[in-house]
Amino acid sequence: MSYCIVIPTYNNSRTVADIVRRSLAVCPDVVVVNDGSTDDTLRQLESFKETIHLITYGRNRGKGHALKRGLSAARRAGYDFAVTLDSDGQHRPEEVPSLVAAALAAGTDKVLVVGNRFSAQSEPVQGMPSGNTFANRFSNFWFRLQTGVRLTDTQSGYRLYPLHHLPCLGLLTARYESELELLVFSAWRGVRLLSVPVSVIYPDDRVSHFRPFGDFFRISVLNTLLCLGALFYGYPRMLLSKH
After folding, report:
1. How far apart are the first and last CA of the chain?
2. How confident is the model over 182-210, as pLDDT tens digits?
3. Which CATH number is 23's domain given?
């Protein structure tokens, strides 16, 4: 299998260089999408211009848009899979091989691997903002209702995507909730969803652009649309694919 690493970033100048450097140590093929950063992020990334594929644009468009650009570039380049991770320091690039190994063990290229920050623990991850924890549990419930699939961490951005089996990347949303959308549409298309334990770090000085109230509201609206979609498209398609 061939794979690359896709890193969306927005105003993460304090951490992005370290994440890119560590990602290159794991995989020589790295795509970084600078989502209209206004701090020193672009200058940091330009020091890697000989070793990464850099996509940059002037206006912030949201994480979903950045993911779309990165995944589309990876697919055009001919990779089978793309591992996505965040540039704010919460994800360890050294764990990319765990996601790749899970995909290889599945014996199919029609598999999407999600990095599970909770593993078998029922308590919140230490340092995770309470708003993020609630949003994840809320999302998990609706995801199971929409797909019949149980996942512990539907909000994790640490994932391995099957580029040849992704749904159309014309996403309904361009923000954080786009990752939920990709999961739901993948499940409806018969992509096997796997969960792999990963560690996560929430340092005190971590820069996060997740807005608990605004993003939670958009997730709620998206879940309403996806529930309707599940009734008239998702479940019928999954049932037909089994026959």
Report:
1. 29
2. 999 999 999 999 999 999 887 665 555 55
3. 3.90.550.10
**Structural domain range at position 87:** 3-241
Provide the residue type at 32 as one letter: V
Give the lowest-confidence range in 123-132, 145-154, 174-183, 206-215: 123-132
Give the total number of structural domains in the chain: 1
Q: Which long-range contacts (CB under 8 A, 24 or more apart) does 225-231 make?
A: 225/172, 226/142, 226/146, 226/180, 226/181, 226/184, 227/142, 227/145, 227/146, 229/146, 229/184, 229/188, 230/145, 230/146, 230/147, 230/184, 230/188
Give ∠ CA 45-75-164 in degrees, rounded to 5.
145
Q: How far apart are CA 71 and CA 206, in angstroms?
A: 25
